Amino acid sequence: MPQQIEFVPQEPTRWLVPKLLVLIGVQVALSTKFAEFFDRRDAHTGVLAARLPDGSQAGVDQVGGDRWSLVETVGGYDFTGAEELWLDYVSDSGDGFDATTTIAALVARESLTLPGPRGEHFTRAGAILVLGGDQAYPFATMEEYRNRLVGPFRSTLPWTWHPRWLFAIPGNHDWYDGLASFVKQFCQGRWIGGWKTCQTRSYFALALPHNWHLWAVDVALATDIDTGQLDYFEERARALEPGAQIVLCAAKPTWTAARQDPTAHDVLEYFQRTVIGARAELRLTLAGDLHFYARYRTADGESKIVAGGGGAYLSPTHHLPTPVRPPTPELSEAVPEEQPKAFGLERVFPATGESRRLRRRIFGQIYHNRGFFVVTAAVYGLVAMAVPADRVFDRPTGRWLEAVAALLPVTLTALGLFAALYAFTAGSQASPGRKRAVAALHTILHLGVVIGVVDLLLHISGVAAADPWMRAVLGGAVGALLGPLMVAVYLWIADHWQVNSNELYAACANESYKNFLRLRVNRDGLTVYPVGVRLPVRWRFDQNLPGTAPTDSQERGEWASKPWFRPTQDIRPEIIEDPIHIPPKRPHGHPASSSSACPG
Q1: pLDDT tens-digit profile of 397-455?
Q2: Measuring CA to CA, which residue among 224, 207, 306 is closest to residue 270?
Q3: SS3 sequence, 28-70?
Q4: Among 197, 324, 537, 552, which residue has the fewest nearby CB atoms (within 10 Å)?
Q5: If residue 305 lies in a helix (H) or strand (E), which one and from where to where?
Q6: Which residues pair with 522 in a beta bridge?
Q7: CA geometry: angle at 346 spanning 344 and 348, to 5°?
Q8: In sequence order, which residues have a C-beta less than 8 Å from that of residue 518 and are 6 or more positions away?
Q9: How far, in Å, CA of 501 to CA of 546, rounded?
Q10: E runs forming strands in 507-585
Q11: Residue 429 Cα distances to 256, 424, 425, 435, angstroms
Q12: CA-to-CA distance for 354 and 361, rounded, in angstroms?
């Protein structure tokens, strides 16, 4: 592969690799603590974007003749001049090369015809690409962006006669370096192949045709919207015309966590209530972070879609709550008779049965996390040293103090192991009692194996068993072989209790069931086409690419636009469900028809 492509294709992230676990822990701790003293978004508050007078259009002639400059008006980046506009939404994309490139290749195509149960659906490439967060894994650096996002997207659309615009919001993985790399990559006017970035902040507003608006907020690490960002959107909210329709993008689908954490949705609810308020109708909310497709809908047609299938490992769909009622803390004071909306789960991809079946992959995939066996070997060796070298309860009656003293080291070690394994459940949205129960089970699984090994050694050679280093060596060897399997057994069982499900599926690193959204805005409203790919394809560098650019301008353009990689087999995109049509609501009235799936 030539060095001119300027990036190195990456394998999917293996989340249980010890070195990576340490690095992520350090990054999370530093970024969280650093954010308490300095929020990089505060620096964006003073950034003055070039603006046109209210109501004017950002066009070629108005931007100093620079064809690829986009001016931000008081209503946002202005795309209102088109009668019809297509957009693409991709989230959680920057992971393994094959999966990311598969999605990038579909987004790059000028058109897609999607087969569905009711026939085919023709779609056009988005003039705008919105990236919904987590553009690089495991954490953002310029190198990771180059290898895991820029390279794959640029290789599928190196150049085009009709360049497109790209906007992005950061997810938690983009925030792990304090947003420094994100600002460099997306807020400095860089090109990513045929896509041009133009935003100056980590959040943005797009003014779309027919009084539709796409607002994308940056909720940082702690689901927080800073005051400068609130002022930015408040200014745009005041410029809205009557009958405005809002599509809201956020990096986290907070509504899915509302049952376990009643405060999870507070920030987005506050934004909706105070910034959007009665000035506009919130019709659709988009989020990533969870790596699947899931659509929620209320009786009045408002929809919330999770579409985090841009390239990262598959997340489980079988634990999604339904219905969800995102709590509104101050609603009872403002409008006592009004109750929170109920959002019912309409469709998931993959189906819940398939999601459950895929968790069995953990028993083989656990061993693909290189170096993880070192962790289990070290733990087993330490526990084996603490296990008594004889059968404590076979000692003569009356020597109970000796028995207690013999059991003290292994007891303390077991308590330490339990504490560590309980901390391992911290990211799960389960009750503390359930977490303690599964942590105890996890501890018992490992202790049972180690005690069994020491007991076997006692049967073979009491002299060898008396040597703590001999026990440590044997325990470490068994830990390397069986320790990962015991972790896999634990993760499989814990998922049934909705604990450590994310860790289970992250360890599987399953690249199947990718997805993205294609949106069309026209006079009839907004139509969402959810695009799915059950299996990403493998890619090989195209050795037949001509190395010298032709002199003719037309031929040079065709030469520059050729993809650098070829798939080893055809990509098979499909429509996950019938297109979701959201008609516009009339000011102070009702929609012409409710949000529904349409045949195309």
Answers
A1: 555 566 566 678 888 999 999 999 999 998 888 889 999 999 999 999 999 998 888 87
A2: 224
A3: HHHHHHHHHHCCHHHHHCCCCCCCCCCCCCCCCCCCCCCCCCC
A4: 552
A5: strand 303-307
A6: 525
A7: 120
A8: 86, 87, 88, 89, 112, 123, 126, 528, 529, 531
A9: 47
A10: 514-522, 525-533, 539-541, 565-567, 573-575, 580-582
A11: 11, 12, 9, 9
A12: 12
Whole-model pTM: value is 0.89
User: Nearest 5 degrees, angle CA 500-CA 503-CA 507?
Assistant: 145
Which three-class secondary structure state does DSSP give residue 522? strand
* Residue owning tokens 């308490």: 36
Q: In which residue ranges of the chain is pLDDT below 70?
A: 1-3, 28, 31-69, 222, 327-338, 389-406, 458, 461-465, 587-600
The DSSP code sequence of 327-369 is --TTHHHH-TT--PPPBEEEEEES-HHHHHHHGGGHHHHGGGS
Tokens of 470: 């001999």
Question: Across 388-524, where does the E strand assignment appear?
Answer: 514-522
Look at strands 539-541 and 565-567 and give their pairing. antiparallel
Q: Nearest Cα to 147, choosing from 7, 312, 311, 4? A: 7
Closest CA to 81 of 18, 137, 127: 127
> φ and ψ at 44, to 5 degrees?
-75, -20
Tokens of 22: 């340490």
Give the HSE-up count for residue 228: Cα atoms under 13 Å, Cβ half-sphere. Answer: 15
- Eight-class DSSP state of 4: G
One-letter amino acid identity for 600? G
CB 477 within 8 A of CB 377: yes
Distances (CA, A) of 290 to 305, 358, 420, 487: 11, 16, 26, 23
Query: Residue 214: helix, strand or coil by DSSP?
Result: strand
